[in-house]
Batch of 2 targets.
Target 1
Amino acid sequence: MAELKTSQIVGTPYIDGKYAAILDMWPLEAPECNRIYPFYDNLKQGRWTTTKCKKCGNIDYPPGVACTKCWSDDLEWVDLPKTARIAAVTEMAGPPTGFESPLVMAWLGFDKSHPLKHLLVRLINCKLADVKNGDEVKLVTFEVPSHPIDVKKETKICDRVYYAFEPVKK
């Protein structure tokens, strides 16, 4: 069993060493809590994925449990591109709890051949002055605080990851 990780990130769901679910801003990634848990399992392997409908071929992002076009639940997981270009970038001086200020956000543009055309994402490992429109960025994953869940009278600690993008070093 993995050990419970406490984090130095402001806004973690731990108060006095106890898990406070209502303060948890990160998704519950365990199969017992989330039907799109393969998305997080794939992130842990460095893959950025989403769901594709086997019936009509529609690709949704974020991933879901049913196709938003035909409502079929016969879905498969497909990989998304790990790089994109910045179409617009800005920073938030007053970010939500749990994020450092300033929070750099970017509107990304993906390759025209892919169904995912644009996405608003968080940029990390850079300052606003370090990036500009047209710069290439890449997917990065990072650990977020673990969370405990009760499964059959036992407490299981679930490690978690999430994603952001960072500038590609030239």
Note: Confidence is low (pLDDT under 50) at residues 1-11.
Target 2
Amino acid sequence: MRTTDILRFARDAAAGYPLRTLLSILAMAIGVAAVVVLTALGDGARRYVVEQFSALGSNLVIVLPGRSATGGFSPANALTTTPRDLTVDDAFALTRLPSVRRVAPLTAGNSEINANGRLREVVVAGTASTYFDIRSFKIAQGHFLPESDWSRGPPVAVIGSKIKEEIFGGAPAVGELIRLGDRRLRIVGVLKASGQGVGGLNTDEVVFIPVSVAQSLFNTNTLFRVLIEARSRGEIEAAKREAAAVLKARHGEEDITVITQDAVLATFDKLLRALTAAVAGIAAISLAVAGILVMNVMLVAVTQRTAEIGLLKALGARAVTIRNAFMAEAAMLSLVGALTGYGLGLFGAFILRQMYPVFPAYPPDWAVVAALGTALGTGLLFGIMPARRAARLDPVQALMKH
């Protein structure tokens, strides 16, 4: 038999039992679709986290109070113990470092905002004018916090776009008075909507005020973080070393943790890539189950077509021809199932993107190739046994059974 005859034989055999063929294709399609959708979900989470951290700014070095247990960054050691707090004076000392372009102190807390007859809970960030450039914010109305002494800031505030929309609607907000806790502040600016944030904190819902006002509001003199912008990418490590040395000299011991934006990105990227691969591996188990189903279906097919096989061998078909015919049928079922599953997976990822537009749920190329390859390989692997059984049938006994 020629190759075209073998393929035609396999196609006709598959078409002769539509329910059996449909179930085999469906099982394989579900396995491939599961791999595509779950890896799209995992890789989308990785891209989302990386984008959010990238939005923090460029050439960024972050100083955290407390000494972490290891030399590198991990989400666990980000939660440091705090033997000595960071202060505004610490942050100001870092502005004199030669490799540092800007420094922004940061303290944060929750408070109620009361304005225009409306009341809601908001996150309040106390910082300085430099925070605007470090985070690459864009202003929609007015201006950001004015340059001032970090220890005596004016009673002003900059609000996020969502807060402005909820409290003032379409009316101008700049110049209006708001009350944060027991403080009355005047709005000097409204940030442009960005929808960006880290750890679930959306800057569209944050009120920015001078760091001294925030410390007075929360009755504290400590800082949550100090953000440093290095002069260039090549000076990030120098800024990290210099900041650690200065704060060690001020505190008398090394009791702070200095991390870089690259370290944070690399850690989360590594963690989420591993998570995506693990999810893909779990989903691939369904492909093995689908392969077993294909093998079972092919074994039944050998039994149902015993007379046909016997007739072919009586007419001179060799054992290798019979084996190739059944292997071609197994490959055909696996390939159609894999392509169908790929289409279903892409549709599932599309639905995810429609439901969550900010979530880039696209399957990675390696996952698509692995899913299609595994599906085809599994189908062929589990098709070997039925094909060999069919090839070994004795033509006389096969014809006598029918």
Note: The chain has two domains: 3-51+266-400, 84-254.
